[in-house]
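As a representative case, we now present a protein record of this kind.
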Amino acid sequence: MSALQTLAEVKISGNLGSIGYGLAAIGPGVGVGIIFGNGTQALARQPEAAGLIRSNQILGFVLCEALALIGLVMPFVYPF
């Protein structure tokens, strides 16, 4: 019975890790949507500032995706 309980605990903790990463990916997903949505609006208002707006969009995208990657790596760094 002990081996069965251990197997069940491992299976449950793995599923919780997947749910945790899914929740951690919501924030960067929303952030990327906001960044590119507002960037598109800014480009429509001021097309002459396209270079500056695009570089700021890319910087914001990279920072948001870094948060998603940190959420992906955390379960491997600190296992249950």
Summary: The mean pLDDT is 82. The CA atoms of residues 11 and 53 lie 46 Å apart. Helices lie at 2-45, 50-77. The chain is about 90% helix and 0% strand.
